[in-house]
Amino acid sequence: MKKKITLLLCMILSIFALSACSSEKEDVTPVAGKDELQTSITSMLLTYHEYSDEDLETYAGQVEQAGYEPIASMLRSLENARAEAGSYRSVKDDWDIRYRENAADISVTTEFAERNVILDMTVEAAGSDGAGLEITSAKFTPVYTMGEKLKSAAVNSLFGIATVAIILTLMVGIISCFRIIPVLERKAVEKKRQEIAANRPQPGPVQPLELVEEDLTDDLELVAVITAAIAATEEVPADGLVVRSIRRVSGSKWNRA
């Protein structure tokens, strides 16, 4: 397998080198002529068509390690194109080759089993004398119909709308939490107060004041004073007053004053 891949790489380089040499003899451009480029690219596509996806991936890894990164990128692009468009069939006659100084930009439509694929490639003059060619970039791009593009755009739009709706719903939920949080805090504080009140010791029942009566009729001085006070208040002679009972009440207003 390794020998086969090495021979393939040498063949590709030889094809482009011969194209450059032919162009130099005809003195058409600094790089290969159109016929030579078309022949080289067609032969390259036919060669790659014989390889499986596993062989292409292995080959891409080896040429990448050898320093041919553009070729490795082209092979992986071809592998992806085959996954979407099927197997390679032919090259259409719509070559677009534009020359630049020591380089050429190539675009051509290739026909695959399920859809067309556009190959865009850039080659530049290589070597000390510019007699060789080097692939500097190459990419296979599947061609989609207008219906497929609209379908893809519709799916992307639906995903975008769904994403925006989800984000807005989350934002509304977060904003609603700012109104619920104070209510929860008040409930927590009220519950804490109730727990503190439940654990607080309750005061005992209030005992009514007991009236203590004391017979003071034997206190003659007190009797005389009270008799004189009543006589003065009522403006009657003291001789007509008889004090039969004098009681002292405990807890009276005078004692609480």
Explain briefly what this protein structure is:
Helix content is 56%, strand content 16%.
Number of domains: 3
Q: Any guess at the CATH architecture of the largest domain?
A: Roll
SS elements, strand count: 5
**Biggest sheet layout:** 5 strands, antiparallel
How far from one another are the termini? 120 Å
**So how many helices?**
7
Query: Percent of residues in beta strands?
Result: 15-25%
Q: How would you sum up the global shape? A: rod-shaped
CATH top level of the largest domain is Alpha Beta
Order of helices and strands: HHHHEEEEEHHH
Unreliable spans are 18-30
Helical residue percent band? 55-70%
Structural class by helix and strand composition: alpha+beta
Give the rounded overall mean pLDDT. 77
Rg measurement, Å: 56 Å
- CATH topology descriptor of the largest domain: Nuclear Transport Factor 2, Chain: A
